[in-house]
Amino acid sequence: DGIAAKAVAFGPADTVLVAGQVDAVARWTLSATPQRLPDLTFAYDTTHVISQALAVSPDGRQLAVGIAGRRVLRWTLDGTAAAPLAPLLGFESWTNDLAYSADGRTLLAANSDQNAYIFDAASGSLQQTLGGATLVTGVELVSGRPVTTGADGTLRVWQARNPVLRTGSTVYAMTTDAAGRYLAASTLYDGLNLWDTSTDQPTRLPDPAIGGRSMSSAVALAPNNTFLLGATTDGTVLSWPLTAAGAGEPTMVAAFPGSYIGSVAVSPDSSLVAVLQYTGTQVALYRADPTGRLALLATLDTPTPQGVTFSPDGTLLAVPIADRAVQLWDVSDPGVPKLAGTLEDLPSLPSTAAFANHSRTLAVATDTGAVTLWDVTDPARPAQSKSYGDPHSAVYALTFSPDDATLAAVGGDKLVWAWHLDGADTEAYLALDGGMGRTNDVRFIRDGSELAVGGDDGTVRTWLSRQGDAEQSLCSNRGAALTGEEWARYLPGVLADDPC
User: Fold this and answer.
1) H-run or E-run covering 489
2) pLDDT tens digits for range 326-370
3) Which helix H or strand E contains 276, and what residues bound it?
4) Can you tell me the distance from the alpha carbon of 208 to that of 198, in angstroms, rounded to the nearest whole number?
5) H-helix or E-strand spanning residue 93
6) CA-to-CA distance for 343 and 99, rounded, in angstroms?
7) Residue 493 confidence (pLDDT) above 70
8) What is the pTM of this model?
9) Measured between alpha carbons, how far is 184 from 239 in angstroms, rounded to an integer?
10) Whole-Å CA distances, 292 to 40, 245, 266
11) What angle (nearest 5°) sits at the alpha carbon of residue 322, between those of residues 317 and 328?
12) For residues 305 and 320, is the Cβ–Cβ distance under 8 A?
C-alpha cells in the first residue's frame, strides 16, 4: 500500500503490524485473502512523526512502538482489538529498536540519544539506563544480558547486573531500611526516587507522589520498611505507607511552616521521627504509627542544627550544631526530651553524624574533613576513641556497615572513603572515585553486601563491599581467558597468571 516499511511484527489472531507510516501503525490480517485492518493511530505533540520500531510481547498481549520522537507508545492487544497504554517517557531522541525479554516482563529500547533503556513491561517503570558512546541502533536480551549495537559498528554485551542507577538530577541524600532492601534518594529536580534492591537488579519502583511540591533534601525510610518520609522546602513532612508495589498516598504534617526542612530521621524501632529545621533553632519529635502518620510529641531547642541520628536503642538523639558541638538528647521519654550531654570544642563545624548499629559509638564528621569516633555510653562524659584525617574536604555523610566493622564516608572531595574499625589502623583502606562529581550520600544495602553512593551526576552507583563477592563477579564477567599466545602478545614481559 505504498508504505515505506521500517519494521514488521506479528501480532495475535494472525495479524501483521508494519511501522513506517506517519502518526500510525498499519495492520493486516493474514487470512486466505489478506485484509487491511484499521490503523493504530497516535498523536505526538503538535508535530507529525513516523513509527519506526515495533515489538510484540511473547504472549501477544502488548505492542510497543518506537517513533521518530521522544517516547515509546504501547497498546494492549486482544485479537484484532487494541487499547492504548500510557507511553514510556524519558528519551532524548528517536527510538530505533525494541525488544521484549523471553518471559515478557522486560522491554528494552535502543535510542539515538546514545542510551539503551530497560523498562518493566507491566508497570512501564524505568529499571536501567545503559549509556553508550554513540547512538544505539539495536537491542536484545540474550541469556539475561542486554546486547546492543551502535552506529559505530560495535556490538556491546552488558553485565546482567548494572551497578549504575540513574535518577536524572543531583542526588542529595539517600536512605535504606534496616535490612537494606529498599533504597530511596532525594534529588535536585526529580523529587524522590525509590528502588527495591532485593532482586538481582534493583527494581525501580514508581516515584512517590509529591503533588508538585518542592522537595528538600530530607528523606528517611522506617527501619522496618513500612513507611517512607520526605520533606519540602516550605516546612511540610510527607509520609508514604510502603509496600512491595511502592509508596502509597502520603499524609502530611506542617512541621515548620515556611522553613526548609534539612533532615529527617526514624528511630530503630520505627516509632519516633525527628525533623530538623535547617538554619533554624529547633528539632521536632513525632510519634509515628505503623503507616507513618505523625503526631507531634515535643520540640528540642537546638541552635542551627546540622543533622539528626538516633542511637540503636532509640533513647538518644545526636544533633550536630553550628557551634562546633554535637548535642546529645535523652528521648527515652519522647514527650519530655532532656539535654543529656554535649560534644564540645570540635575542630570545626560538624557536618554530619551517625550512630553505630550495635553500640553507642557515634561517628562525627566536619566541614574540614575530620572524622572522629566517640563513646557516648554516658552522654554526660563522651570520650573520643579514634580520629581519621583522610578526606580532603567537607564530609557530607557517614554510615556504618551492618556489623559495625566498617565506616564509610563521602563528601566534597568526590571520593568514597572507608575504614576498618576492628584494629588500631587509622588510615583509610579504601578510596573510590566513581566519576560522579561530589559524592553526597552513602549507604550499605542488601544486608551490607553492597555500598550505594549518590552524586552530583544524577546517579546512584553500587559497589560490592565484600572481597569474595567482588572476585566472583569479576571472574564471571571477564569472558574467555587469554591464551598463552595472547598473553605474550598483549602483556609482554608479564608472567601469565589467571586470578580466577
Assistant:
1) helix 484-490
2) 999 999 999 999 999 999 989 899 999 999 999 999 999 999 999
3) strand 272-277
4) 19
5) none
6) 58
7) yes
8) 0.79
9) 13
10) 45, 17, 10
11) 20
12) yes
Of 178, 127, 173, 174, residue with least CA distance to 448: 178
Residue 364 identity: V
Cell 511484527 belongs to 9
Burial readout 59-70 (b: 16 or more C-beta within 10 A, e: otherwise): ebebbbbbbbbb
Distance CA 203, CA 79 (A): 31
Neighbours of 382 (CB within 10 A): 21
The secondary structure element, H or E, covering residue 208 is none
Instruction: Quote the DSSP letter at residue 305.
Output: B
Q: 510497543: which residue's cell?
A: 64
Q: Which three cell numbers stand for residue 480?
A: 574467555
Q: What is the number of helices (H) and of strands (E) in the chain? A: 2, 44
Rounded distance, CA 41 to CA 54, Å?
14
Helix (H, G, I), strand (E, B) or coil at 2: coil
Nine cell digits for residue 174: 539517600
Residue of 321, 422, 419, 340 lying closest to 381 (CA atoms): 340
Task: Give the residue carrying C-alpha cell 543529656.
Answer: 340
Determine the Cα–Cα distance for residues 42 and 253; give it in Å rounded to an integer: 42
